[in-house]
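Question (not urgent): is this output format expected?
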Amino acid sequence: MDSQSSAESDKWISDDEWEDVSPQTRRRLLRNAFGATAGAAALAGCSSGGNEDTPTPLENEGGGGGSTTTEGDSTGQSSGRTLDHIISLAPTNARFNPYGNAANFSFRWYWAMFDQLAVHDKVSNKTKGMVIEDWEYADNGQVAWNVRDSYTWHNGDDLTAEDVATQLKIGKLMQTVHKGYGAQPLYENVETTGKYELTFDLVEPDISREIFEFGHMKRRAWLWAHRDIWGKYAEMFDDATTDSERTSAQQEMMQAVQKNVWDNANVPGNSVWEFVSGEENVAHFEPYDDYVSPFSDAEWSNGEITGDMIDYSLDWHRYPNQQQRTKAMQEGVIDVSYPPESQSARDRLKENGWGPADSLSEDQITPQMRSGAMGVLLNCQSDITGDPRVRKAIHHIVPRKPLVEWVPDYGTYWVEDRIPSGIGQDKEVPWFGGNSNWPSGDLAKLERYAHTEDDVDEQRATELLEAAGFSKSGNRWKDPNGENVTLRFYTATSDEEPMALRFAQIAKSYLDSFGLQTEVTAQEATIRAGKTMESGDWELLFDNWGGAKSGPPFLGFSNSFRVQESLSGQPLPSNDSWAMDRVVEVPYPIGDPTGDLQEVDVINKLNELRTQMSDEERRQKVAEVSWIFNQSLPMMLINEEGGTGGYWLNHDNWATKPPNNNLNPAYRYEIVEIGQYSYCQYMAKMGTEYFHPAEGGQ
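Got this back:
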């Protein structure tokens, strides 16, 4: 993937877009006329009240939401003009700090009130800017970012390069970029060079631009660090000269809190949703009129998209358990929620207009929509599954589709992994054919193994096991020592992941029928992932894998290849008893599983993918590493979550549109990690055409 820069990519937002002041919103006009403070105060939508620390709650303002009790129960019906969503953290308990000791991941409203630095366009397979308008990479490793000059904070301040630099410096201080999945900062020497420009140097000048942008601009890269509120921690990083000074600054940063998170003086946002008030179990958001969407010049947009076009509000309700959420769904108090596990309860809710948020038929789910994944580790050091021919035989006997098709709403939510490539369909699609021609090229040559029950190939599995020295007596396979084979399969408990327990039981039925006797043991996660895994006394073990999320192929491979050494070549003692060896034998050429065996260093191959190269070079490299995975099979990649995840929506109150050949931005752009969170909360950034109140809604 060639990364976007101002010199080499088509302009997504025109250079002169912001020169025409005619479409300015009333909020901006007021601010320009009377000053930022007056304009923001006049139109913020918050009651000034007598207590400045606690804004007066907007009780039933706009006709929606209702009031909430301390137990989370609500009164009143949703109006159809307030989108009533669910949250898991009471607003009054929120102490906003992405690096704080108290987990703020349950404080997911801030993913609506802040915009990301950039997003991923899954159709063009390129990074496109939001807060960062465009960027350049110099040959010496210096990177220049240009901040879009149209953004303002919800307190009226302009959003500038100093805010972005503040967040990058805090990331260096904490050694975690944006608190996003432990990504290490790959930059240094951050400097602002103008009001809307900043530069920094890449620690590894030859790093893949794709990898850098995914971890530093897109994945959980919400810009939250207002310079006046968080700037002192950036200064601490600049001033620290010793390890003890850095440690002290880190500790102070982790302990910092911002109370009354709805107060723009404490936590100003910068996106289309403004947090205007908070109660014990509900958070109230309103459209920020002065917001001008960076998607305004996208090909599917009909002119400028601004906050004052949004004709509904957003309330987030806290319901601590599913029983309360189900009751609120049945009573029409909320519009978006996780569905109940009971099929009878689901059926009743469907009668009242509820259903999957996207309401897509199976043929509308494209491979690009995948996210979240489940798989099974295969012990590469076991006397049984240590031989790759045995791992191949298991893949020929256990079809992946039946393992997940029993799941309610299977067609909408889940898809079996169709081609064991190690990266998942979301990454395969942009590299090997796109939606209309997937799979193509070398990916189509990969060994498919058993996809459906009709694909089960007992003859090929028998050939592989016999070549590995196994023999069959009656209906029971014996190992090369003549001992009966028993595959020990440790999986999740029903409380942790009922889907995993069920597909382990289904896999057992296929293996038992073939004569590979299997024992399934459900085990609590910490024991399974600790003591059991490290002991090596198992053959199959449930685990999650990278799967989808539009990340670079390298990141998918680094998760699905479980090797005894790290990418830096350092041994991983916890992996000694079960992970694959660094050097494996793989048949060549690609597509010929009976070809001549060649020794391959997996770590070296993965590290080659970390460097910058052309699209064609990377496609060839991804194809080869996919083939290596396809023939070594350290994991069985079972399934990937489809569509936009497990949220349900009340369609009587809210209207959505299908993917529409990838024009619908809910499916095209990776803004909130699809598969985990409803897109309803952020569609307002993209206009109301694809998500809006339904006509006749309550």
